[in-house]
Design brief:
Elements lengths: L14 H8 L5 H4 L3 E5 L3 H13 L2 E5 L17 E2 L11 H11 L6 H21 L24 E2 L5 H19 L2 E4 L2 E9 L2 E9 L5 E5 L2 E4 L20 H7 L5 E2 L4 E7 L22 E5 L16 E2 L1 H5 L9 H16 L8 E4 L1 H7 L1 H19 L8 E10 L2 E2 L12 E3 L17 H21 L13 H18 L7 H15 L6 H21 L10 H25 L23 H4 L1 E6 L8 E6 L14
Parallel strand pairs: 1-2, 1-9, 2-5, 9-17
Antiparallel strand pairs: 3-4, 6-7, 7-8, 10-16, 10-18, 11-15, 12-13, 12-14, 14-15, 18-19
Helix pairs in contact: 3-6, 3-12, 4-5, 5-12, 10-11, 14-15, 14-16, 15-16
């Protein structure tokens, strides 16, 4: 079954302008009569809430953290892309658009990706006006550096803390509206269900994490900006609290999930060093600008790394992808690292890492220059590992990171439920099968500052005369009762295993069978094992504590959602009989290990409909039409 993305007519470069010129508006007097719920206070959520409130709407903002500033956007390090062409090295909006389409292995919409590149120009100006301290050249111009998957310098950065600095800008914009009374802020509130009235999203049910009470909130529209679900692998670069529950509960109310098997493994992460670890630490991809990646040519080489001579080192990215070398895209770089590790050339205590070596860059540029660019990252590495990376190579390894999949949205960022919008990493929208580095901060900001503030009013303009809904409506009562039933079921479990046990088991299962590579056999086996794990979860889970303040209860609810999502990920990967981007099916590769994409049969976005607890999901498709770019074999050689 095909679904419509509602892409505007006209030439590619004119589509967004045409949309804005024809979008319906709401006069200021009517805006203050309308309520909008925004769940999530990262870059997408904060920017959207602040901008809508600035326009005059009443905004209710929710996050499960104790402060909006603790949103995971702060963890993004390396930079944010924009086609400003400050380096005069050939960049343009079109080139950025093409790099992103190609980087996503031609599995994203032309119109959305072009709009992303087009709006990137305004974002930098907005961020500078907010006081974001981007790095600058000696003359005062904003500095740029390059990132994986491109051959120009378009990444703006604030050392290795770009996400944090952009987040401070969005946070202060949000808190200004809170102080003006246009945004009501609800911290320590976790969304547990979406309320749908007559087919439209009209509110949410939350749990107050300080009291345990369930609370209902009604609005004219709901925005989910709750981030990605990479924590489904347990070991990932994401914070411990990151989860899929908000978008998954919306999915079970009718919102389609798309491309959920497109999971990006970041190539520059600190490797796992023990079985008791609960998360992995990300090192910025910007390090690949100057660091060279290699492994010993000899399998099982136990020598001190600095003692291994140049001719016995395999700079495998430079060898396999000479045009891009160490700046090859993340999916390709991560798979190449795994291939070398699996071949027995891995290093470190668990033989699961590769080298990121700065000796050549320090020799050519001097330590001071490298310290100026990456000093905080080198300090972080030494603090964690006790190793001075100025003197010996860093050890890095691929790790689950960004999710290109999420809720399906149309050109307006609206899901298949009218009135429910999804922004940032919570939607599938702009990245296709692989996200280029430094595009995540861009998408989150662009969605929140520049796109949703046009598309949400366009939707609301047709609903001005809709009946005012309150939390006394039967739909709110029914949703609250359903949430209570689920929580009581979790609390009544009388088993002996913790939620963490099931999360770890699921994570390892998915990493082995639906991770950096997949096969038909591994995916079919994974589905059977996840179903068995879900049954075990229902019968053997044990939650200590009671209904009130209880982090184990929160965790169990999130793991329950992860189990269902994990099964859908495997279905999504199983039906896509091709290799593209982060989805690498072992049956579909060239003799030298490169991906074989199948445009004849799989040039579409998968969109899955929830059919019930024990039912297989139903596949819908959004065909991808390429009018401007020519489909080509994705090569970085």
């Amino acid at each position: 079954m095909m679904i419509d993305a509602k892409i505007p007519t006209g030439d590619l470069a004119d589509k967004w302008s045409n949309y804005k010129d024809n979008a319906k508006l709401i006069n200021p007097a009517n805006r203050k009569k309308l309520d909008i719920i925004v769940v999530g206070t990262g870059l997408a959520g904060s920017s959207c809430a602040a901008t809508l409130a600035e326009q005059g709407y009443n905004v209710l903002s929710f996050c499960f953290q104790d402060s909006a500033r603790r949103a995971h956007s702060v963890a993004a390090q390396g930079g944010v892309n924009a086609a400003k062409n400050y380096k005069n090295d050939g960049d343009s909006v079109y080139r950025m658009f093409y790099d992103t389409i190609k980087g996503g292995d031609f599995r994203s919409r032309e119109a959305n990706v072009y709009r992303l590149a087009e709006c990137s120009l305004a974002l930098i100006d907005q961020a500078v006006a907010q006081g974001v301290p981007f790095a600058r050249e000696y003359a005062g111009y904003l500095a740029n550096r390059s990132f994986g998957g491109v051959q120009v310098s378009r990444t703006f950065y604030a050392r290795g803390q770009t996400g944090q600095q952009l987040m401070i800008g969005a946070y202060q914009a949000l808190m200004r509206q809170v102080s003006l009374g246009k945004v009501k802020m609800y911290t320590r509130h976790e969304m547990l269900d979406l309320v749908v009235v007559e087919g439209k999203a009209r509110g949410i049910i939350t749990r107050n994490l300080e009291t345990g009470e369930l609370e209902s909130y009604a609005a004219n529209a709901v925005v989910l900006a709750t981030g990605g679900y990479g924590k489904v692998y347990y070991l990932s670069t994401l914070a411990m609290g990151c989860n899929t529950s908000a978008i998954w509960r919306a999915h079970k109310k009718g919102a389609f999930m798309s491309g959920v098997s497109w999971i990006q493994f970041h190539p520059t992460c600190l490797p796992q060093i023990g079985e008791t670890q609960s998360k992995l630490t990300l090192m910025s991809e910007s390090l690949r600008n100057d660091g060279r990646i290699w492994v010993p040519k000899k399998m099982g080489d136990e020598r001190v790394l600095n003692d291994i001579p140049e001719d016995e080192r395999d700079y495998y990215l430079e060898r396999r992808y000479p045009a891009f070398g160490n700046l090859s895209p993340r999916d390709i770089s991560s798979r190449a690292a795994k291939e070398r590790i699996d071949a027995g050339c891995g290093i470190g205590p668990m033989k699961n890492a590769v080298c990121l070596d700065f000796s050549k860059a320090i020799k050519e540029q001097g330590r001071d220059k490298i310290e100026e660019k990456y000093g905080n990252l080198f300090r972080m590495y030494e603090k964690i590992n006790g190793v001075d990376a100025y003197k010996e190579p860093m050890l890095i390894s691929p790790a689950a990171h960004f999710t290109m999949g999420g809720l399906w949205v149309d050109y307006e960022l609206m899901t298949t439920i009218p009135g429910l919008f999804a922004l940032g990493e919570a939607n599938f929208s702009d990245h296709g099968a692989n996200r280029l580095g430094a595009n995540s901060l861009l998408q989150s900001c662009v969605d929140g500052y520049f796109i949703a503030p046009y598309t949400i009013p366009n939707y609301l303009s047709e609903n001005l005369k809709s009946e005012k809904i309150t939390t006394d409506h039967p739909a709110f009562i029914e949703a609250t009762n359903n949430v209570k039933e689920k929580l009581n079921k979790l609390l009544s479990s009388s088993g002996h295993l913790s939620a963490d046990h099931f999360h770890k088991t699921l994570g390892k299962l998915l990493y082995d069978k639906c991770g950096l590579s997949r096969s038909k056999a591994s995916l079919e086996q994974a589905i059977l094992e996840i179903r068995a794990l879900k049954e075990s979860f229902d019968n053997e889970l044990n939650i200590t504590g009671d209904y009130q303040v209880n982090s184990e209860l929160e965790k169990a609810g999130r793991v329950s959602d992860f189990l269902e999502l994990g099964e859908l990920m495997c279905y999504d990967a199983l039906q896509r009989e091709e290799s593209c981007g982060a989805h690498f099916r072992e049956e579909y590769q060239t003799p030298d290990g490169e991906a074989i994409r199948n445009d004849d049969d799989f040039c579409y976005v998968s969109a899955w409909k929830w059919k019930g607890e024990s039912e297989q999901p139903e596949l819908h498709k959004e065909n991808l039409i390429f009018e401007t770019v020519k489909l080509a074999v994705r090569s970085y050689k």
